[in-house]
Task: structure prediction
Amino acid sequence: MSNAIELKATELNHQGGVFCPSPLAKMETWSTHPKVFLDVGRTGQAKCPYCGTVYKLKDGEHFEGH
Result:
């Protein structure tokens, strides 16, 4: 699986990340791999080391960390 999931900044958590597996990628947590945190806000994208799914901010989106 090597899909790219485009995200709005508002879809990131307060730390600027997402967890994979994710419902955003149409994955059921029980049928894929261990839950991992991916820091998308820092660089604009992150790749899951287990399934290869790339989570990235949509063009024009920026994460303003707190």
